[in-house]
Amino acid sequence: MNHPDIKEVLYTEEEIKKVTQELGAVLTKEYEGKNPLVIGVLKGAIMFMTDLSRAMDCDLELDFMDVTSYGAAIESSGDVKILKDLDTSVEDRDLLIVEDIIDTGRTLSYLIDIFRYRKAKSIKIVTLLDKKERRAVDLEADYVGINVPNEFVVGYGLDYIEKYRNLPYIGVLKEEIYQ
Ligand code: XMP
Ligand code: MG
Predict the structure, then answer these.
(1) ipTM of the predicted assembly exceeds 0.90
(2) Residue of the nearest CA to atom 22 in ligand 1?
(3) How many angstroms separate the alpha carbon of residue 27 from the centre of ligand 2?
(4) How many domains is the chain partitioned into structurally?
(5) Range of 67's domain?
(6) Staple partner for 80: which of 110, 134, 138, 165, CB 3.0–4.6 Å?
(7) Residue nearest ligand 1's atom 13 by CA
(8) Quick check: is 121 in a domain?
(9) With b meaning 16 or more CB within 10 Å and e meaning fewer, what string describes 110-132?
(10) What percent of the chain is predicted at pLDDT more than 70?
(11) Which ligand 1 atom minimizes the distance to the CA of 100?
(12) In terms of DSSP bridges, do strands 94-102 and 80-84 run parallel, antiparallel, or are they unpaired?
């Protein structure tokens, strides 16, 4: 049974699993013989990060960053505040940033600037979902799971006011939930 607030399931648990396994196989090759620092952007990326990292058959380390956008009611402003920084130094490290969804691209663009400034050796982005038509800055992910339409989605880490992160699938909410 789906959650009663969900209007439509866009991607099932099985579909997400398949995409994640495929990305994991590609990234296993990419990082063979390296020891990348895999950086999850909290909180949305947690489910994807735990599944993706288990699909990567190579040495790696995990770390997290929590950021929020000032004045971000509807979309991110790009004026980003770091709520939790990395525990690890990125200097001379191969970084893999893991995102749940890229929307305007402003958040990641800001993070990349920081990591460049901190002298990372390489920076790649993997995102489960990509809302390409919403992009406001010049930013492309290196690895994309699924291109999604311009709809607000929840589940598998993605929330609406902190709810629905635990749904194992990704879907859209019924209109009345936003009232
Ligand atoms: P940017 O900076 O790319 O922001 O605009 C990406 C962040 O925006 C959030 N976001 C969503 N969250 N459903 C969500 O639950 C969505 O459809 C959605 N679109 C964007 C998300 O936090 C992402 O990391
Ligand atoms: Mg996020």
Answers:
(1) yes
(2) 44
(3) 21
(4) 1
(5) 6-178
(6) 110
(7) 153
(8) yes
(9) bbbebbeeeebeebbbbbbbbbe
(10) 98
(11) 24
(12) unpaired
What is the phi/psi pair of residue 158, to 5°? -85, 140
Question: Which of 7, 103, 133 to probe ligand 1 with, by most ligand atoms within 8 A of CB?
Answer: 103
Ligand nearest to the CA of 42: 2
In residues, how long is the chain?
A: 179
Please state the pTM of the whole predicted model.
Answer: 0.95
- Is 103 among the residues known to form the active site? yes
CA dist 90 and 14 (Å) reads: 34
Q: What is the CATH number of the domain that holds 83?
A: 3.40.50.2020
Has residue 163 been placed in a domain? yes
pLDDT on residue 75 = 74
Band (pLDDT 50/70/90 cuts) for residue 95 is very high
Write out pLDDT tens, residues 150-170.
999 999 999 999 999 999 999
Residue 1 falls within a domain, yes or no? no
